[in-house]
Amino acid sequence: MNLISKKKGEKNVQDEKLNPLSSLKASEKRYVSDKILNNLGIKKEQTLSAMKKFIEDEIKKLQSMSQRAQSMAYFDDIARYFGTRAEEVAKFKDAGGHVVGSLCMFVPNEIIAASGALPLRLGSGFHETAGPANVILGDAGLCPLVKSTLGMRMAACSPYFEMCDLLVAPTPCDAKLKLGEILQDFVPVLMLNLPRIKSGAVNRRQWAEEIGILMDKLELLTGKKIKRKDMKVSIEKYQRAYSAYRELMNIRREADVLWGRDALLVAQLSYYDDIERWTQNVHKLVAELKQMKEEGKTIISDEAPRIMLAGSPIIWPNWKIPDIIEESDALIVADELCSATRALSNPVVVDENTKRGMIDAVIERYLFPCTCPCFSPNLERDDNLLNRIRDYKVQGVIFHVLKGCHLNALDATRIKGILEEEGIPMFTIESEYVMGDYQQIKLRLEAFLEMVRAQIDII
Ligand code: SF4
Ligand code: SF4
Question: Could you tell me if 74 and 270 are in contact, meaning their C-beta atoms sit under 8 angstroms apart?
Fold first, then answer.
């Protein structure tokens, strides 16, 4: 029996449930009515100025790192979030452009860009915006990434969110599922039903259908058919970006010339920067780092523990964990975060240059290589971690779990056992976005790093 076949003229079930190109009327809002918003009395200006201060303080911290590459100045500018880039996106919108936001790494940028719309990834790292969302989410124990992202929209504090014509929300975990649902009270949302088990033809077919719906909605939004040539241009543009990032990782593997915090920042700014300009600037950074390597410059003593950062996403400007690690005389030499290297690995590989062939390549790329803990069984994550540990000569792993992120908390226990068998110490650290636990986390991380140093001395 074919369970997904439709009767002639029958609409797609998702189309029945949602109309993702038009906003809900006030009476249709289910979670955040105008009355609730008004009663909250959110102080937008105060929130905005706290957010701007948070960014500036963090940029100052990064700028004070020793021997920092000068080419990072470009990325600092984009990292200001409210500045240059927000103005560019506003101009794009004023000229009739469409902006499509996404909430996770499962949304194919290549397809959004091929439609002529601008893709932006919108997860928030601001602790200032988590407050308003608590009123709606209550004691559900959802992770701070979701609270902060919802609060950001409730407080109308993100220029990018405000400019979104459509938000694409995959459903990898309960928190993201509900976030997408609640955000429909603010912006047209297309939910992408992500299969949690990758194997099997039905799951692949379901995912292909979801991507097909996304393409239809984008064509409706932009009024333009996505052509073979558009797909080709767009895929190649992102392939160049991935290749530039790979070069950055290569130089990082060869010499200690880039702070881990900078590597995370570069990766993450690909979320909302102009991707071609971002690629050019990654090349400039790589050239400078190669020069530093040739001149024998390093940013830190070669006795510093070589750390890999893994676990829940870490979203700019909340650099609390990376700051603590590197301020404790250790170097983050690699990561496996979906908010950094994982998002820029595995470019789309096209076997057949037809439009269908390219769409199939995108469908595969955004499902199969992903090692997000939302998948079961996800053995690829273990292999991926072990390979990276060997490649980057990692001496200790810090596994970060955002409070409420059950998927990563579960993986942490399992992965610790696997790494211990390989003689790699791992430390799991649970955190919120707030800064109140800074000193407590610092003390615990320093103790772990001492242990890693002792182990290096023995070897
Ligand atoms: S861990 Fe998985 S579900 Fe969570 S943000 Fe990353 S990719 Fe998305
Ligand atoms: S951090 Fe964890 S709980 Fe939060 S959205 Fe990502 S996978 Fe879901």
Answer: no
